[in-house]
Amino acid sequence: MDVIQKAFWFLVAIGILVPLHEWGHYRVARACGVKVLRFSIGFGRVLWRRVGRDGTEFTLSALPLGGYVRMLDERDGVVAPHEREQAFNQRPLRQRAAIVAAGPLANWVLAIVLFAAVAWLGSEVPKAVLGTPPAGSLAERAGLLSGDAVKAVSADGQDWQDVTSLADLQSAVARAQALGEPIYLSAVAPGGHSARSLRLDTDQLAGRAPDARLFSDIGLAPLGEPLIRQVVPGGAGEKAGLVAGDRVLTIDGQRVPDVAFLRDAIRHARDGDQPRPMAWRVERGGQVVELTATPRLVEEGGQRVARLEVSVGSPPERVFVSYGLFDGLWRGVEQSWDMAATTVRLLGRMLVGEASVKNLSGPLTIADYAGQSAQAGLSPFLDFLAKISLSLAVLNLLPLPMLDGGHLMYHLFEGLSGRPVSEWWQRQLQRAGALILMLMMALALSNDVARFAGWH
Questions:
Q1: Most CB atoms closer than 10 Å: which of 128, 243, 371, 431?
Q2: Which InterPro entries does this UniProt record tie to the protein (predicted)?
Q3: CB-CB neighbours of 10 under 10 Å
Q4: Which 8-state DSSP code applies to residue 316?
């Protein structure tokens, strides 16, 4: 998918989520009797405007990365005596707090509905059936074997949550790693009738950036047949005599049970800084063919790994997963709450240096995910929208000046002390909040650039 298409779907997402956020502020403000002067999507030069029946000016501005609702307020200028009752600062504290909280709440409710819609629509997803764990990975040390089906996960080994797909499992494991906690898996061997509980020590990888090397070190690979799917012309695999459709039987006399084992064997086929030739036996057209495959060494994640320049593996076994009306809605509530709690805890761990700041993503990564999810279909795009909507809700509720959460802190102080935060303190806090937000945005953008440049 090209850059223009990704930018288009990114703008589609922004065009849904930002107006909804501002609509939350607008509707509750009007319900509380506050006069809204402007409802703007975007910042900067106004490209389009219309005045509503209630006198609100609706505008579309040149820079579409956000929006705002400007309300009548005596702190911003002179208010006519007959309009004083409609000024934001004249409304009771509980109403002002409700108006501020309405924007993030609208995003949160949308996330619940979208997560529920994905559950209602259902989709075909890979089963949580695992291939051979890479040597030395957390999965291997935990005792996972080829063909193990993970049925449930737990943070403490007591309270279990069902796993319906490989995506569920990977999401739970990634969350545990980001938070620096272990995770327990309930796994059933092929043909087995009883589950065994295993501990995956994801806490040992705390603070690591979410990259390909991290996921390899965790070692949760889907089960698939050890097939050669595609051979790059002129690559090491073609030079070895491999052709698409070959089924790999053994490597150096060792049976190859699945594609995960095959990938790991290729990856580690080197002796120091030199590639190591491998003796392969493959099945081709009902006959066994023996050949020698010598990989090429490439740089990946700061280390040299072996590559045969072939695509391998059959598609993993899939299952159709869907939910009824109430189960789907409850799943939406659970997903949104779990994601919000994880995000807050992760931000806290990043603040104290216990989690990598590389977990922060900026607009380039979001645009990339928007394009990929739109290309994958309706359900993946709705899931993407739900996650971004919830992220906007959580971000705006952070207790930082300039964000809704910062204004809610002002109202909390006023409720506890009986007096508002002074204008002098508000100015100082606004400056500090602006600086923190600029630093966060710069860090997120630098992470984006590093990801696309291959530095992460």
A1: 128
A2: PDZ, PDZ_6, PDZ_sf, Pept_M50_Zn, Peptidase_M50
A3: 22
A4: P
CATH class, domain 228-312, is mainly beta
Distance of CA 271 to the CA centre of its chain: 37
List the chain domain ranges.
93-122+324-456, 126-222, 228-312
pLDDT band of residue 301 (cuts 50, 70, 90) is: low
- Say what the alpha-carbon torsion angle 58, 62, 64, 70 is, to the nearest 10 degrees: -40
Question: Could you report the per-residue pLDDT of 81-119, keeping only the tens digit for each?
Answer: 899 999 999 999 999 999 999 999 999 999 999 999 999
The model carries a pTM of 0.83
CA dist 170 to 150, 160, 174, 218, Å?
Answer: 11, 16, 6, 10
CATH code for the structural domain at 126-222:
2.30.42.10
Q: Where are the alpha helices (DSSP H) in 74-205?
A: 93-121, 138-142, 166-179
Q: Which residues are catalytic?
A: 22
Eight-state DSSP code of residue 4 = H
- Residue 35 DSSP class: P
Give dist(CA 179, CA 207) in Å, integer.
8
**What gap in Å lies between CA 357 and CA 208, rounded to an integer?**
9
- Are domains 126-222 and 228-312 of this chain identical in fold? yes
Give the span between the Cα atoms of 246 and 286, in whole angstroms: 10
Q: How far apart are CA 305 and CA 134, in angstroms?
A: 14
Tell me the pLDDT tens digit for each residue of 208-249: 777 777 888 899 988 999 999 999 999 999 999 999 999 999
pLDDT in tens, 39-58: 999 888 999 999 988 889 99
C-alpha separations of 106 from 110, 280, 393 in Å? 6, 58, 8
